[in-house]
Amino acid sequence: MYTDPAKSLSHPGPLTWPDRRSAAIVMSPALGDTLNMMVVAHNLWLAGWCVHVFGDHAHALAAWFPHLRIAPLPEQTIASFALQSFEFVIQQHRDSPLKNFETWHKGFLDLHDVEYADSGLCMAERFAKFTAARFGLKNAEVSTGIRPRPGLVFRKYATRVALHPAASSGDKRWLPSRFVDVARRLRAVDLSVEFTMLASERTAWVRAVGNSFPTRHFESTAELAEWLYESGWFIGNDSGVGHLASSLCIPTLTIFRRRRVSQRWRPGFAAAAVVVPPWWLPTAALKERFWRESISVRRVLKAFSRLRSKRFPSVDSNVCEIAKL
């Protein structure tokens, strides 16, 4: 008999289900990691597996994944009881967020080697390929399986450009002044520009932007998803928000500090473009130190113009249709 994961985690004990292959997908605290790992969960579900997802970002987005069973990330002590009956327990990193899986679960798998393999594929493509190969699936979709909330209209505000100037660490952030310059130039060609960031970052960005552009923060990942889904475009640093926009099939432009990082971590769910430092910067040390200055506003705008020149479905199209382009 199936046991709801959230209830089981409140009362520690093994989860149970009908006679099907089963997997627990344990998510990292990072939004980008979570969305890419949802590719594994979605493809196993498509293959008829009983799939439970555990993670805080995933749980916040649970209404966007009605076909999956999703619960918050459990504490380590609870996890050792609740997850023991799964055939497989899968997480991206070897020892995070839950530790020492291999000591108590014979079906534990991590995707460390998949993440760091020498490959030109992005993470979403790598995880789809891994799932098909490891579990003998005939094929695998490069998709999270995300489904829009009722009442939302895909790219309703087709001229709205969502700008995300933040990132999880300072070494991923392009120059704030150049983001503002990009915003001004986009507005000059009749695009509507809005900035989004964490509530804790908003005060600093209001000072940088002034009253020139809206600056938004959201109380939950689900609210952010609703706003992105109805936006026309996304421009941002290497961050989980870019992966969320891409998973919702919003055309996405991402600014990366290194080319090899962009190959692995570019958003991979929909039409996307990346901007990286120019090749002429010598030595790794100089590339790391001056990558922000080496990427000009003109370079970003040119890449965005190329992205805009591609064909996209009308605002009446849904997330599944655009994913097939």
What topology does this entry show?
Elements: H1 5-10, E1 22-26, H2 31-46, E2 50-54, H3 56-60, E3 69-71, H4 76-82, E4 88-91, E5 108-110, H5 112-116, H6 123-135, E6 157-164, H7 176-188, E7 192-196, H8 199-209, E8 215-216, H9 221-229, E9 231-237, H10 240-247, E10 252-255, H11 259-265, E11 272-275, H12 284-294, H13 297-308, H14 319-323
Parallel strand pairs: 1-2, 1-4, 2-3, 4-5, 6-7, 6-9, 7-8, 9-10, 10-11
Question: Keywords, please?
Answer:
39% helix, five-stranded parallel beta sheet, globular, disordered N terminus, six-stranded parallel beta sheet, Rossmann fold, 15% strand, 2 domains, disordered C terminus, alpha/beta, 325 residues
In a nutshell, what does this entry contain?
By secondary structure, this protein is of the alpha/beta class. The chain has helices at about 5-10, 30-45, 55-60, 75-80, 110-115, 125-135, 175-190, 200-210, 220-230, 240-245, 260-265, 285-295, 295-310, 320-325, and strands spanning about 20-25, 50-55, 70, 90, 110, 155-165, 190-195, 215, 230-235, 250-255, 270-275. A six-stranded parallel beta sheet has the order 8-7-6-9-10-11, sandwiched between helices. Strands 3-2-1-4-5 form a five-stranded parallel beta sheet.
